## 1
Amino acid sequence: MAILIDGKEIAADVRKEVRHEVAAWTSEGHAPPYLAVVLVGDNPASASYVRGKIKASQNVGIAGDTLKFDENISEKALLEVIHDLNTSPHVSGILVQLPLPDHLDASRVISALNPDKDVDGLHTVNAGRLAAGLPGFVPCTPAGIVELLRRANIDIEGKHAVIIGRSSLVGRPLGSLLLRKENNATVTICHSRTQNLPEVCCQSDILVAAIGRAHFVTAEMVKPGAAVIDVGINRIDDLTRARGYRLTGDVDFEAVSKIAGYITPVPGGVGPMTIAMLLKNTMTAARLLN
């Protein structure tokens, strides 16, 4: 049976470290780091995610607010908000909660951020810094995945990492991060046009599933002893639950856990690390401003 990588426990350790760092920072006379979260519209899932981020920030001593705007806000008005946050000396980090309403160009909005306040790591400047091996903000989920691997004492150097999914949020930046000299993995990024996908996955020492399809990764796709990281969060019907559904990942956990050496659960795996790394990025952003 695979060893369970407890994302909740590891994230709690990261949050504790950030809390101590914030306390030391403020004891030196600095104002607490400040996170501004921009939320447009009434998407219930987005609102829930934002509440979780603000609560987690407050729990480690990071100040912050949700700037909520009507779904019909014009792109010009939203860009003016971004400009004001960029130029404010009190704002350490800015996060624009995605997705945005269809009439807003998310790429243009993200590109308007000051890269040194882009704590989500989505600005093209930060993407370029990551690809070039330069310091910059790394998207929180990929950063959290690498932190999980390190803290679970899973060797990365020289290992073959296969990533299923090439999104700009997870797959692409994770590939760049694993290729960095401090990690030294050999990386294969797979997608919907990859041929012989099961055979490719079976070659991996580290398999990351980030495709958004429930139970896509089966036991036949996993090399015995491999570390399997499940990024997926899928809602499937479950009439035994009071809410009528349950969350599951991209990996067939029950079957794969009998083959893999390490595995993350869903929920309780990668998800908690994403928020933990956001807090870490926000503390870093505060230092950049001083």
Note: The CA atoms of residues 161 and 206 lie 5 Å apart.
## 2
Amino acid sequence: MNIIRLAAACLLLTILFACTVGPDYLRPKAETPPSYKEMEGWKKAEPQDQIPRGSWWTIFNDTQLNTLEEQVNISNQNLAAAEAQYREALALVQVARAAYFPTVAAGPSVARQMPSANAPGSRGVTLPVSVTTSDLIFSGQVTWEIDIWGKVRRQVESSKAGAQASAADLEGVRLSAQAQLAQDYFQLRALDSQKQVLETTAANYRKFLDLTKNRYATGVAAQSDIQTAQVQLNATEVLLTDVGVQRAQLEHAIAMLMGKAPSDLTIPETPLDLAPPEIPAGIPSELLERRPDIAAAERQAASANALIGVAIAAYYPNLTLNASGGFEASNVAQWFAWPSRMWTLGPAALQQTIFEGGLRHAQVEEARAAYDASVATYRGTVLTGFQQVEDNLAALRILENEARQQDVVVDSAHKNVEITINHYKVGTASALDVITTQAIALNNDLIAAGILGRRMTSAVLLIQAVGGGWQVDNCTK
């Protein structure tokens, strides 16, 4: 009974004096500007407008894009790997929590033995017959290391924060895959626009080639004019073929993002005729709540902070309680009889490491350094987020102005082609003049299509930069 009282006293002391060592976590401060520098001049969305949570790509009102994006969640292999890593992180939380509870083991053991009649200790007395005995034991053991100093609690805290970081990483991979698909899709459609321009231009070049041949037949054009017009047509057809190569590669990239073999996906040719939607960028302080990579970095800092407590707990003694009990007999008939019972309570061991060559100090310093590194990573991720928002706000604003300027250039270039051809027909302009103006018009048409593609890509990147409609509470529940 004295042992029972001792164990009860140990448990009572544990309840009264248990504490959690190590620093409590405070979210690291990250400097946030009051507003975005590049927001000036950017058309803001109405206050009630928000990026759709989850299906953010629907803001573009493109049915084909919606169909492609919905399949990313189903079959993307990078996403599947991130989801498996998240489940692994959740399992680690359960592994850490298991240390709260005692370890219980049970099982039977059977032994049969015959001691030697001449064994040491017999003092010369020879037994007439060696006695063979059986020892049948069914026992259970309980071992429990009491979490006096909060080592287990800190480990659970760290694992939980790690799982939350993994949840944010999963959403970051999802957002990245979705954004990459949208970028590839709009680049593909921009190529479709360029292809349309090249096809229209090639048709016009054929007409000019026919016109030149007719003028040569009447003696008012030189053979070199025909050759020059033919070279221009052939060069345009080469560009048209090259667009096909780029388009095929983008289509294959989209298939991979969807988790499909490239041969299983064909996207119809559709020239790009959209304009970037109005995207609510919000205010800088909201960015900390809307980007999964920032949330993941902050949760990693929380996890590293908890590990400092785990390392500090090693300075303090461990209290381990042990108990065992069961049945022991020499034959099966008496094995589980009440008189065959046995039990042991103890030992209750309080163990303190006296010397370990500076190991604990080094482990604490390692944990503190890892925390400092995670804080720096968090703050760097925040700054990167601000940069990406500013970059794409600037890109959208400047490209919108550039598009308006380019439209003026395109109109002027086409009017110049028309005027030059009319002059060529009446003999006041040369074939070289026509070809030059046509080349200028084609170049500007391709530039205009490229600018629109860059605007759409920048719109996708801005949505990705502000978190794609994601919220931090998605990973901290």
Note: Strands lie at 103-113, 133-146, 318-329, 341-345, 349-351.
## 3
Amino acid sequence: MKHYVGVVMALLVCGLTACRPGNNQGKDMEKEIKLKLETTAGDIVVKLYNETPKHRDNFVKLAREGVYDGTLFHRVIKDFMIQAGDPQSKTAAKGQSLGAGDVGYTVPAEFVYPRYFHKRGALSAARQSDSVNPEKASSGCQFYIVTGKVYTPASLANMEEQINQMRLQSVFNALAQKHLKDIYKMRRANDQDGLMKLQDELIAEAEKEMEGKPRFEFTPEQQAAYTTVGGTPHLDGEYTVFGEVLEGMDVVDKIQRVKTDRNDRPVENVVISKVTVLED
């Protein structure tokens, strides 16, 4: 019998609480907004999703106000992502630690999962950690572009199993909270048999509660993307994906390969000289 007490999962939950898109047929018909990021490594063209209107409108607003002009790609991790948008990076000294700059507000999370996920080339919003940001609200200005890596079907299957075990662990933990007095009492009495019996009862109750509920599985679209072009599946449902790269992934790859310091900042600045809203 599996014992879940004290188990710590290393994998982030992918999309278990994310909102699913509703009836957005009208939004789907809207013209997609495209922007060009002119950088010292080359140009990158992105499109913004209409199903994430708060992030779309905010990104366009900041671009038109010139907030991104002169900022750096300040955090670069190969086979993961490249991050930018910190206003403080405009005047940062060489080697200065970056990533804390903002524009004084956050943007509410807009998860459109599983339709939009962290495939290679996804444009997503950075944010603070869950400990200070349980609602997963996005930074008002910082963003990242996914590079990621390619996964095997077996590794994705293992990830699915970890996620489902984590869901079961969560149910078990909630049940255990209701028996804290009994648990503390048995611990003080060194009643190991009593603790094991209660644990087995709670495991059985948790498994029964999970019966009939759908197991987490990656969609066919996710499976296809993550096993071919790649991405970062463990970020799904945790950070808002609000667009994707249309042109210039070769530039993104060039940036992800630059030499970085111990803070993941490029040793030689990679500058976003201008962000322009493209008019069709």
Note: The CA atoms of residues 53 and 110 lie 8 Å apart.
